[in-house]
Amino acid sequence: MALDFFLTSLIVVLLPGTGVIYTLAIGLGRGFRASLAAALGCTIGIVPAALASIIGLAALLHTSAVAFQIIKYLGVLYLFYMALSILRDGGGMDVNAEKTSKGYLRIATTGTLINVLNPKLSLFFLAFLPQFLPAGAANPGLELAKLALAFMAMTLAVFVVYGACAALARDYVIRRPSVMAWIKRCFAATFGALGAKLALTD
After folding, report:
1. Is the whole-model pTM more than 0.85?
2. What is the DSSP annotation of 163-188?
């Protein structure tokens, strides 16, 4: 695989999107292990988009305005739900000193849904992966699958680092409830803004 693929993928993965914001929020609210579940869920959420790109179904979202709009507004509603969930007591970013494995599956599922309900991800893969397909590849599908797996591995690694950094700041936040209150508002506003941005996507 070409160096330009890894460099471009790294830049894309590092950019703060819904998955990054969610992983950071969980890392701050629940600790490192919970952030691992979030990172894994967000990575799994890439699978449908990658498969759609490989088998050509992403073209449906590109040509069918109805299909795109349906998925888009499901994604918008989910992002707004995430914003409200963060603000309410007992939401995903509820911080306490106790670390428990309870809810890891739910955290991973939420991370998966965040990416599954983002139609732009399918269109991104449709436009992104073919650019790095080797000329004259005997099995284009296999080559695209390798690129998709490499992108997912990079996503998981970067998100784990993001979660670890957020978890390191957790103890500081626990001792300062007012700081956490402001952080929760900022994350909620970010999810709301991402939802509004998605709603305006053509």
Report:
1. no
2. HHHHHHTHHHHHT-HHHHHHHHHHHH
